[in-house]
Amino acid sequence: MCSIIGYSGNEDAAPIIVKGLKRMEYRGYDSVGVATESNSQIELKKGVGKVEDVNSKVQLDILPGKIGIGHTRWATHGKVTDANAHPHSSNSGQIAIVHNGIIENFDKLKDDLKSEGYKFLSETDSEVIANLLQKNYAISKNVKDTMIKTVSELKGHFSFIAMFDNGQLAAARFHEPLIIGVGEKNYFLSSDVLGFIEQTDEAIYIDNGNFILIDQEKMQILDFDGNEVKPVITKVSKEFADVYKGDYAHFTLKEISEQSETIFKAGESTKEAIKETSDYLKHAKNIYLTGSGTSYNASLVGKHLLSKYAKIKTESIISSELPFSPDIIEPNSILIALSQSGESADVLEAVSIAKKADCKIISIINSLTSTLARESDIVIGMNCGPEIGVAATKSFTSQLIILYKIIQELSNEKIEINFPEISGAISKILQEHNNIKKIANVIKDISDIYVLGRGIHYPIAIESALKIKELTYIHAEGIAGGELKHGPLALMDSNVFVIIINPGDSTYQDTLTSAREIKARGAKIIGISDSNSDAYDYWIKLPKTDELTFPISETIPIQLLSYYAALEKDTDPDYPRNLAKSVTVK
Ligand code: F6R
């Protein structure tokens, strides 16, 4: 998703902005740009590509001045072109803006501005903000009133930063993240603390419907009506600064490898919240789980766990589907929202629908300073450290561990979770990477992969297919074992690979039968199991663990397989094409 950044202080702005943009690269983007102000002149450079490449082409980081703004764009309105990259300048060149979000009424605003003689150079919705600001500034002649008027005219979701040629910065937040970093003699504005964490660990999380004015060393926060808001400074965990790959070739591999440790940490810092959650679940009439992508897949595992081990019935809802059937939510229920970032727009919308029905919101989140955390009644932290690779890996297993801890709490500790055993199993799988690498080489040119699992392994099959798609761009699909004969069997031939998730539990025999049926149609079988079988063409050995925790260990080989296949295909596993880490638009 787009990242915005701003700087005002006593150092050269451009190098700081470029560095901040690099740290936020993980959010996903296709183009980049920076603008600075010096001697009442705004200078602007931008282009399509990675920060590093555009910088070496046009030298973003030598723009002059101590005030500046920067942006990485993830295209929504208009193609990936230099002209559509941000910042966008107003027609007079007096104001430049960077924007994250979607201006829903941009067509109407653009037509109105055009009829008044304004010209537009891009296809973006964002450019209207620059010219609307110019129009309103010409009337009010002061930045505060200009902002009040402008935000009242914008519809949609936005956070934007505007730089005026008098050296003032202004920024507004409406349903998109915006954070101020407070330095000794400088201010930072950013969509993510990573934008400024190297410079300061003091942050102010801006509330929805507020805007900021920064004039040299003076900073003010106001609501959209212009009333002053008292800033609340939060100390951000220094852990966020720990976002280097170390000896690993990619963040994705680092994060996959960390799982033998992160499973111990999941929920550790919020044990009380797990206890409180289980108390609520015991007495709740209706419980819903929601999330997007990988987090939704984790919710499906949660549904199985709660029903099998705690006899609690729940419903898993894809967050983006809830607006189309909000009546599913019974009033006064519990909604458990799962989200690594806590900023997914779809999840936040699902939460707002549930809140309207007076539901209690319990969230399982990695980023404890996120919007979702602030919208929740109870927050359970995943505690797995920053996840930079766009494809979710360690956050998924941390979510599962928290769900395990909830059922353990519900059982009054009768359910045992053998953490050293799970951790040992993950380490063993990681050590077997050579076998997985060989299989990755075999599947790299395949066009279709299916992943089959039954019962609690079906959500893992869906999650595995998602990982394969994201990292390798190979078409992949999760199949519930019993559904094979109801359609997918028609697709099985010698061009197809099928990964069979088949640990030794009650699903084993039926799943082995499915493997044989598929093999009989000529498809190649990769078995993930604690025991080998002649049904498998390739076998990835699962260490023997307690059956309860198979879903965790069986996830790891497919994460690794997807990672190594991405390398074989020469795609970037950390930043898959077209994807963003934190999907803050609907
Ligand atoms: C998959 C992936 C996405 C996210 C989804 C939700 O690897 O990364 O599908 O899981 O966008 O993100 P969060 O969990 O941040 O709400």
3D architecture notes:
With 586 residues, this protein is α/β, with parallel strands linked by helices. An 8-stranded antiparallel beta sheet has the order 3-2-4-1-10-9-11-15, with helices on one face. A 7-stranded antiparallel beta sheet has the order 5-6-7-8-12-13-14. It starts with a strand and ends in an 18-residue tail after the last helix. The chain has 3 domains: 3-241, Aminohydrolase, N-terminal nucleophile (Ntn) domain (Glutamine Phosphoribosylpyrophosphate, subunit 1, domain 1), CATH 3.60.20.10; 251-417, Glucose-6-phosphate isomerase like protein, domain 1 (Rossmann fold, 3-Layer(aba) Sandwich), CATH 3.40.50.10490; 419-572, Glucose-6-phosphate isomerase like protein, domain 1 (Rossmann fold), CATH 3.40.50.10490. The longest helix has 18 residues, at 293-310. A hairpin with a 2-residue loop joins strand 2 and strand 3. It has 18 helices and 25 strands. The chain is globular, with a radius of gyration of 25 Å. 35% of the residues lie in helices and 23% in strands. It binds fructose -6-phosphate. Fructose -6-phosphate (F6R) binds next to helix 9 and helix 15. Residues 292-295, 339-341, 344, 347, 391-392, 466, 470, 582-583 line the site of fructose -6-phosphate.
